[in-house]
Write a structure and sequence with these properties.
Strand content of chain A: 15-25%
Order of helices and strands of chain A: EHEHHEHEHHHHEEEHEHHEHHHHEE
Radius of gyration of chain A: 19 Å
Number of domains of chain B: 1
Structural class of chain B: mainly beta
Helix content of chain A: 25-40%
CATH superfamily of chain A: Thiolase/Chalcone synthase
Structural class of chain A: alpha/beta
Distance between the termini of chain B: 62 Å
Number of strands of chain B: 11
Distance between the termini of chain A: 16 Å
Strand content of chain B: 35-45%
Oligomer: heterodimer
Chain lengths: 396, 163
């Protein structure tokens, strides 16, 4: 099985509303990624597209609509979709296109344009609820997060002020990220005093809706070695979906993220994730989600993520920098694009090219993760400056 | 690298600085309720909460399903669950889906129902309770609509109130 490396990346600005269409955003990100790898579209053998619900754009078969912008015309092209987990799932698809030996170079593009949906993109989310048992109760998307966050807090005795630290950190980190939509310096108090939307969720606990696109180029080892002296290897991938009967499981812990992580760690030969993962981009559409995911990724003990956050472990200069990019809380959340942005951030961090966002100590291995659906899916990619140790090992 | 993407302000978008094309679809659906959900809603009409049991894993499940997703076999029997339970988790929601403030907050909750296996619950609303006094583990009971008003819907239970 050929090893697969990331050899280029590009991300547009993340914006509340962009002038560009989704197709145009896709083009800009794809072009940037190609340019950064020194390639043209002619060199690309296959294209994977990631984009979340069709309802945002009001276009059915959105993958086909975006095709030209993603450079997929006349090539093997596919769109995968696992809700909010899509942005880290699309590169997994790209990975198996190359790891299978079918292709040597694959372009992965992720796009989201949420602003078109009126009067508020939240409307597109309403249809995720069961039409018989849940929708008649008049739910909104915040409910599932609020219910999960409260369960997490009451299980471990976590206070809102402990969770708010994540929002403070990520929005501050975003100040060093030129693509960011909501970079700002705020305090825990600002978060605690912000509008209560659905207790315990307050305005500053939540990432915004956004437009944006991101892209990466994947290559097999023989091609990657010719094109760059700084390939970043995909060491392991994992994904898992939990039951759709979400009221039947304990919302205090994302066991599906753990399953995905264990799959990726197995492939990567990572035995002690706390020691062997040097920088991480956990999915943070809400501040508590970063904590939830650090635990699910086995990067800290259950219920202990607030403590390591308070201790500064997840700051850029800490032992386990989390969301050095600024995350979704700081950069914005164009759903699929934000997941791929996290992959790109780890790519830059491992190449030592993250500029002001660079974490110290020359990280050797990083991880990007996304989450989505009805609290169901975990998608995980482990990346490193070295090739995976457990070469050829089956995922499961 | 040059930054790509031109942000539009709300004013530019709303006040005609750029040309926009509106579309207001009216999508209509009507769902049949299926095997298990049909039994569930029929139970609601009679003022009962119906669950299912799988004899292999021995779980008593709610909401009911025709097959056990764990054992991947058909469930063995339909069984009545109690209409009392405890609050697994809850929220106090002040906004509608389009982010407008609502006058009196809704209290959505996951309620673990008595008689179902541990941790098995449904999403519903709490009522007749001061939002500030709701706690995890609080015992609650369904408040049903009068029999003649029930129509075979999850809303045949108006809400759950403290027991």
């Amino acid at each position: 099985m050929p090893d697969v490396a990331i050899i280029g990346a590009g991300t547009t600005r993340f914006m509340r509303r962009s002038l560009e269409t989704g197709k145009e955003l896709s083009y800009e990100a794809a072009k940037m990624a190609l340019d950064s790898a020194g390639l043209t579209l002619k060199d690309i053998q296959a294209v994977c597209m990631g984009t979340a619900p069709d309802a945002f754009d009001g276009l059915h078969m959105k993958g086909e609509y975006l095709l030209d912008g993603a450079g997929g015309f006349g090539k093997p092209y596919m769109r995968g979709y696992v809700g909010g987990g899509t942005g880290v799932f699309a590169p997994i698809q790209g990975w198996y296109h190359v790891a299978s030996g079918l292709f040597d170079i694959c372009l992965v593009v992720c796009e989201e344009k949420m602003s078109s949906c009126q009067p508020h993109p939240q409307g597109a989310f309403l249809t995720i609820f069961d039409h018989t048992t849940e929708r008649p109760l008049g739910p909104n998307l915040l409910w599932i997060f609020a219910l999960e966050m409260n369960r997490y807090m009451t299980t471990y005795g976590i206070q809102k002020k402990d969770i708010a630290l994540v929002s403070v950190k990520n929005k501050k980190n975003a100040m060093d990220n030129p693509i960011a939509q909501l970079p700002m310096e705020i305090t825990v108090d600002d978060v605690l005093k912000s509008e209560v939307l659905a207790w315990p969720v307050q305005r500053l606990d939540v990432s915004p809706t956004s437009d944006g696109a991101a892209a990466i180029v994947l290559a097999s080892e023989k091609v990657a070695r010719k094109l760059t002296n700084k390939p970043v290897w995909i060491q392991g991938v994992g994904w898992s979906l939990d039951t759709s009967y979400w009221t039947d499981k304990d919302l205090c812990y994302p066991r599906y993220v753990e399953k995905a992580a264990r799959m990726a760690y197995g492939m990567a030969g990572v035995k002690e994730p706390k020691k062997e993962i040097n920088v991480v981009e956990p999915y943070d559409p809400f501040d508590y989600k970063e904590l939830h995911h650090l635990e699910g990724l086995l990067l800290c003990d259950k219920g202990d993520a607030p403590r390591i956050t308070a201790d500064g472990v997840t700051q850029r200069n800490g032992n386990m920098p989390a969301c050095p990019s600024g995350g979704l809380l700081g950069c914005g959340n164009p759903i699929a694009a934000s997941g791929l942005m996290k992959i790109s951030e780890i790519f830059y961090q491992l190449r030592g090219e993250a500029g002001k966002r660079q974490v110290p100590g020359k990280p050797l291995r990083g991880l990007a993760q996304a989450w989505g659906d009805l609290m169901q899916v975990g998608t995980v990619v482990v990346m490193g400056v070295d090739k995976p140790r457990a070469k050829g090992k089956k995922a499961r | 690298m040059e930054l790509k993407g031109k942000p539009l302000t709300d004013e530019e978008f709303r006040k005609g600085k750029v040309i926009t094309v509106p579309w207001n679809p009216k999508a209509m659906y009507e769902w049949d309720t299926g095997t298990a959900m049909g039994r569930y809603l029929d139970g609601m009409k009679q003022g009962k909460i119906i669950g299912v049991q799988c004899h292999k894993c021995r779980r008593i499940m709610v909401p009911p399903r025709d097959f056990c997703e764990l054992c991947f076999r058909n469930v063995d029997e339909y069984t009545e669950i109690k209409d009392t339970g405890s609050v697994n988790t809850f929220s106090i929601c002040n906004v509608s889906w389009d982010m407008k403030r609502i006058s009196s907050p809704l209290i959505p909750a996951v309620i673990e129902l008595d008689g179902a296996s541990e941790g098995m619950g449904i999403m519903h609303l709490l009522g007749e309770v001061d939002p500030k006094s709701v706690t995890r583990g609080m015992k609650v009971k369904a408040v049903w609509k009068p029999a003649q008003e029930r129509e075979g819907a999850i809303t045949d239970i108006r809400y759950f109130k403290p027991l």
